[in-house]
Design goal:
9 strands, about 40% helix, alpha/beta, binds iron/sulfur cluster, globular, 17 helices, oxidoreductase, 4Fe-4S
């Protein structure tokens, strides 16, 4: 039965795998990604694509992990194309070859976005944990352009690379990029775990935005059409974002193991999510508790229910509220009206005195993931046996820090 008050999904993010050869300390994948080994096979993904398209989804992103690890990527792209999706591949570029760029183009892929870690190979290696990745990314950016795609590059900015912003934009210009997304790190998953080492200072942010504006003028004066999108980190804002355009409103993520989420970070919340192996996408979207939980305004705290902006920002991000306050029903602390907004002010103030140290970054890899899971399970076992005080479920990273 369809709940008539809910609009259909427009976006599907297909996270094909959590496997990835890189180890970015700002990765938004779940800390316990090694727990989800049971990836959907090709037929199961075909079924997901068909169901989502039948429901009305038109935009499709393939991501991960590194989606190029999946050898059936071309087949999935081809199926998506036949179904009428507009398709986008979000990749680190590792695993891409000129042949594969061409094969993906033949399969009907519409768009490729490659991420860069830094402007120079040394910092890129320190951040991604790979000596070869940077050179390969540059070569593949050129191959993508040569295959006739618009070249879109993405850089996650943080304390260790944000001062390189001028060099990063110059590099993108040299590569012939059509659009560059300068996305300041948002603190979910591994980025939340590493946030103290990743958060820039306010001065760094101001300088970086000014440098971006200078580059916009330079590019315009040269008649060069390369758009620069500078995304400010939420922690430095006063108003929360309308996360995913509203919970269960337009966006749906299917995780590698088939779990269906309103956004790719929602796995961090203390709630159960349905799986396409057991339930149809239609029932999940319209009927499941998970997707209905934060729709509308009924769930909101009084502060948001009485606020004129409630339909604009939907009370902010549930994952951010939970990670920062331990309560997924709270107003997002990014909001200046939130009683917990001071948490962010304190974090920014504390961090302004730290010296950036790459050695303190915890890399996103299988060994660390298993270790974090182990820590969480020990804590949970202690609580159940009464050897540790019961407490609300804490995000793994809080447990790890204890
Ligand atoms: S952010 Fe880095 S580690 Fe995470 S999936 Fe992307 S490339 Fe891999
Ligand atoms: S009080 Fe709630 S609805 Fe109002 S601006 Fe803040 S988060 Fe948005």
């Amino acid at each position: 039965m369809v709940n008539k008050t809910t609009s259909p999904p427009l976006w599907l993010l297909a996270e094909l795998t959590y496997r990835c050869p890189l180890q970015c300390a700002y990765c938004s994948n779940p800390l316990e990604f090694t727990r989800y080994q049971n990836e959907l096979d090709t037929d199961a993904w075909f079924s997901v694509l068909r169901q989502a398209r039948a429901m009305g989804a038109a935009q499709l992103g393939f991501s991960g992990g590194e989606p190029l690890i999946r050898q059936d990527l071309e087949a999935l792209v081809s199926e998506a194309r036949q179904l009428g999706f507009y398709t986008n591949l979000l990749t680190s570029g590792v695993g891409l070859t000129a042949q594969r760029v061409n094969a993906l183009a033949e399969a009907g892929l519409d768009h490729i976005q490659i991420s860069l870690q830094a402007a120079d190979p040394e910092l890129a290696q320190a951040l991604a944990g790979s000596a070869k990745a940077h050179a390969n990314k540059l070569a593949m950016a050129k191959a993508v352009k040569a295959a006739g795609y618009p070249m879109v590059l993405n850089v996650v900015l943080h304390r260790h690379n944000i001062d390189q912003i001028g060099d990063l934009i110059a590099l993108c210009d040299e590569l012939g990029a059509d659009a560059v997304e300068l996305a300041n790190c948002q603190y979910y998953g591994w980025a939340f775990l590493n946030r103290q080492a990743l958060m820039p200072t306010r001065e760094q942010l101001v300088r970086a935005e000014a440098e971006t504006n200078r580059w916009r003028e330079t590019l315009a004066a040269r008649g060069r059409d390369m758009s620069l999108l500078f995304v400010v980190p939420d922690y430095f804002e006063q108003a929360p974002k309308a996360c995913m355009g509203g919970w269960g409103s337009i966006f749906m993520t299917v995780a590698p193991d088939g779990a269906v989420l309103p956004c790719h970070s929602a796995r961090e919340l203390p709630m159960a999510f349905p799986n396409v192996k057991e339930t149809s996408l239609q029932d999940i979207w319209y009927q499941s508790d998970a997707f209905n939980r934060f729709r509308g305004t009924q769930w909101m705290p009084a502060l948001c229910q009485q606020c004129d902006d409630r339909d604009k920002d939907h009370g902010g991000c549930r994952c951010q509220a939970y990670l920062l306050t331990g309560d997924m029903n709270a107003t997002d602390p990014v909001c200046q009206h939130s009683p917990q907004h001071g948490l962010l002010e304190s974090l920014i103030a504390e961090n302004s005195h730290n010296t950036p140290d790459q050695a303190t970054l915890i890399p996103r890899n299988a060994r660390q993931s298993k270790q974090l899971q182990g820590q969480a399970e020990i804590q949970s076992g202690l609580r159940q046996s009464g050897l540790a005080a019961p407490s609300p479920r804490q995000p793994l990273e809080l447990i790890y820090r204890q």
